[in-house]
# Entry
Amino acid sequence: MEIDYNLVQRAQMLLTLDHPLSQVRDILLCEGYPQDQVVELIDATEEVLNYLVPPEYDENKIGIDILRPGEKTEGRKPGVDILIDKHSGKLSLMTPQFQETWKVANEVRKAIRHQRSVGRYYH
# Structure
């Protein structure tokens, strides 16, 4: 379905004003935008936001931020590319679309395996 560009712009503006997604939907419907377009846009936005929001991590998890070749460090927002559970050693790849994420994840897995095998002999 083709979504009206004005609808997209209005939704973006409301989201930048920190309105919750459900309120954005209600506002757009009250403003007379077609319900099918509003619902499709809100559903797509929710799906993207759920995908992009990094998982909660606490003192039991470690987040790794990877600096990619050619990427500038000035003005760069840190993000989580790999999340490691300290207890289980399980890795979650937040940016699997990047080759560097896989390379770093493989090295981290090797280090965890090595640490666990060495730890068996000394504990």
